[in-house]
Amino acid sequence: MRKDVVVLAALTTVSTVVAAVLLVRQWKRRSEQRWRHAQRILRKFARECATPVPKLWEIADDLVAHMHAGLTSTESSLQMLPSCLPSLPTG
């Protein structure tokens, strides 16, 4: 009778450990799948929202042109205040 109880306890312990391992493995697999899915969504979003480099250069050039126009006249859409500093501070 004592041997039967020990065997039953051992089988119960082993089956519980195996079930726990399987549940953890399944949870990890689902977690990895969700992570890969989220990465795919973010890559797609970044790809669709990316601004081409030539467009960025065009925007930068337009900003510089508007800044120069704002310093030379008052009709510019970007108002600038002239400064008398010979150079920018370095510290």
UniProtKB/TrEMBL annotation:
Coiled coil: none annotated. One of its GO terms (cellular component) is mitochondrion. Residues 42-91 form the Hexokinase N-terminal domain. Belongs to the hexokinase family. It comes from Capsicum baccatum (Peruvian pepper). The chain crosses the membrane at residues 6-24. Its EC number is 2.7.1.-. One of its GO terms (molecular function) is hexokinase activity. The keyword Kinase applies. This is Phosphotransferase. GO terms for biological process: glycolytic process; intracellular glucose homeostasis. Signal peptide: none annotated. Keywords: ATP-binding, Glycolysis, Kinase, Membrane, Nucleotide-binding, Transferase, Transmembrane, Transmembrane helix. The keyword Nucleotide-binding applies.
